[in-house]
Amino acid sequence: MLRRCFQAALRFIPHWPALYQDVVSQQTVGKSLEIWQTAHWNTRGLSKMSLWPFSVKSRDFSQPNASWSAEMQDVYNRYNALCEAETEESGKTGTWRKLPSYNRTLKYVRGGVCLSKIIQSKSRLFTRNIKDLGAAFEYVVFLNQQEKRCVCVFQPGHLLEGPPGHVHGGAIATMIDTVTGTLAGYLAGPVMTANLNINYRSPVPLGSVVVLHSALDRVEGKKIFVSCRVTSTDESKLHTEATALFIAFKMGYLFGS
Ligand SMILES: CCCCCCCC(=O)SCCNC(=O)CCNC(=O)[C@H](O)C(C)(C)COP(=O)(O)OP(=O)(O)OC[C@H]1O[C@@H](n2cnc3c(N)ncnc32)[C@H](O)[C@@H]1OP(=O)(O)O
Questions:
Q1: How remote is the CA of residue 196 from the centroid of ligand 1, in Å?
Q2: Does residue 44 have its Cβ closer than 6 Å to ligand 1?
Q3: CATH class entry, domain 58-101+122-255
Q4: How close is the Cα of 192 to the center of ligand 1, in Å?
Q5: First-to-last CA distance in the chain?
Q6: What DSSP assignment string belongs to 73-128?
Q7: Cβ 62 under 6 angstroms from ligand 1
Q8: Which residue, judged by its Cα, is nearest atom 52 of ligand 1?
Q9: Does the CB atom of residue 22 touch ligand 1 within 6 A?
Q10: What pTM value is reported for the model?
Q11: Quick check: CB of 38 below 6 Å from ligand 1?
């Protein structure tokens, strides 16, 4: 039943193949980027089409909100200033780009808002499933596509406690997985985490602001190796170091084909 719905949706949505095809095995990383971004931009373009019957706009959860500390806002402003404003005509961006963050990754692709209502409609992205502002994962990811790296500003809230007053290691791992996975996804299309190695160097206080710096190490076929460092906002303190391996896959893998 689920599979039939999915296949029907694939037929219905004309540009779904941008995400569906195996971009890594057949194309270069540069081309993959283009396709993944095309899917991304198409989604944005889609929401501007007035005739489209499912033109529900997805909410971007990475916008500043009242729970953000002054430090969070400062770092956000710093990276946001590096993002060149996009014009309707050119659709171009600068070296850095703030990535939107929806509560379902499915909403990134063209027609995804519609698909998201068909497939497991109650599912929500783990890091975006708590409605209280600032209670858990407050974060924004910026992508530098030329340098193949991402930066994430992260303000962990009180629901992420591990050691008293400090962030749970699993919550830090979640953010590392999210940021490295986002980078790998932008470079290679759909990916799954195969391996995550983490060294915790110093605890992260709840409510503080840290920055995750993630960079592409190398690509070997469908294997994408990414590293990540979690530091204080001025980078004087190292909290965590990690390496991750992602494997590119065809979307059908998730749906049994
Ligand atoms: C916006 C938010 C972004 C969030 C990102 C979050 C991402 C996630 O959390 S994903 C969820 C957690 N991950 C999973 O559930 C994945 C479960 N594992 C799997 O499905 C599969 O093992 C999968 C897809 C990773 C790899 O399967 P498959 O495509 O069959 O790979 P396979 O052919 O066995 O191996 C391919 C290569 O990878 C290597 N490899 C696979 N797994 C590993 C591993 N764990 N460690 C090291 N190498 C590995 C293999 O050795 C092989 O190397 P080579 O080509 O050199 O021989």
A1: 10
A2: no
A3: alpha beta
A4: 6
A5: 14
A6: HHHHHHHHTTBPPP-TTT----SEEEPP--SSGGGGSTTHHHHHHHSSTT---GGG
A7: no
A8: 223
A9: no
A10: 0.82
A11: no
198-229 pLDDT, tens digit per residue, is 999 999 999 999 999 999 999 999 999 999 99
In testing the pocket of ligand 1, which one of 125, 192, 217 has its CB within 8 Å of the most ligand atoms? 192
Mean pLDDT for 170-193 is: 97
What's the ipTM? 0.97
Question: Nearest to residue 196, comparing CAs of 181, 217, 211?
Answer: 181
Question: Which residues lie closer than 8 Å to 102 by C-beta, 6 or more apart?
Answer: 58, 59, 60, 61, 108, 125, 128
Dist. CA 3–CA 9, nearest whole Å: 10
Each residue's pLDDT tens digit, 30-45: 344 333 443 433 334 4
Q: Which amino acid is at 19?
A: L
Active site residue 22: no
Residue with tokens 């909410």: 59
Exactly one of 60, 74, 177, 217 is catalytic; which is it?
177
Rg of the chain on CA atoms, in Å: 18
Q: What is the DSSP letter of 22?
A: -
The mean predicted confidence, pLDDT, of the chain is: 81
